[in-house]
Fold:
Amino acid sequence: MEIQRKGLNRAFIVLAVLTVVLNLSSWIVTVWLIPEFRLANLLSFVCTVLPVLVLIYRKRKPVSLILSVAYFAVYAFMFWMTRIANGSYTSNSLSTIFLCCDGIVISCAIGILPMLNALIKSKNKKAIAIICFILGIAETVWVAYSLTDAFASFYWRRSLVTQLVWTYYYVYNTTYYASYCVMMFAIGIGILRDAPARIKKPAGTEKPMKTKSKQTALLFSIFTGVLGVDRFYLGYTALGIFKLLTVGGAGIWALIDFIRIGVDSLHPADGSPWVEETRDENIRSIAANMQAIAEKLEKLQAQNVPAEAEKPEADGENQETHKVSLKK
Structure:
């Protein structure tokens, strides 16, 4: 379990850094296209950093609450400045409001879920992490669809004819909205770190360790390695999620894991042996026990059979002698 905790910590750090890098990249693209300072970009960057800090200081509830309140204050001001003050939300723009609802939902979730992680009990944190992963997958699908030409023409009410508009829409949106997707997965993994571990039962009541099949792991690695199914099967949950997000490291990670499983370099996370090894070891143990029993039986037969054969004769002679002495 300690190994899995370390894996979750590393995955959280990687995803958190990636979120910040994507948000900064969108800022750089904006400055490159529109060379002027925009307060909205600075506020967006602050809204990216604050949830990460809430997860870092999760064990200090007052600090987490202050950071969460600061996040909602900054987000409310940014929402007012970019959507309400400039007249984006008017009575004639209901379609725009509907299309931006996903951003409102995700932004609220980014602020609420890390705060709940600092307040609720540990037994409920796994459910919150699952909610984060579901929202992250839904947002990823939505962002991928929003980058299509048909959606862009509908959203912008015009075709992307100029190079400037094309660059702004695709490059900026790819980095900016992708940071929200990665942020949801980072929050999910950050919350999953605090989920309670399985309570170990006393030695007398422990269930036998579940063994994994090497052949099954190889099949998972061949056909679903790019989706991280082999890592999930072996018990590496955090690495499985990261492998899924990176599509198996563009196939390279999936190939390496397949080779490692084949040469016995990658084993189940709980340290249990392969079921094939357990079966072969049991067969060898049974054969050795049967051989030892056969050798003991041979020794016993060699020692006891002659003595048992002579005993009746000796008893008969003693009885004859006793009868002769009585007659005399």
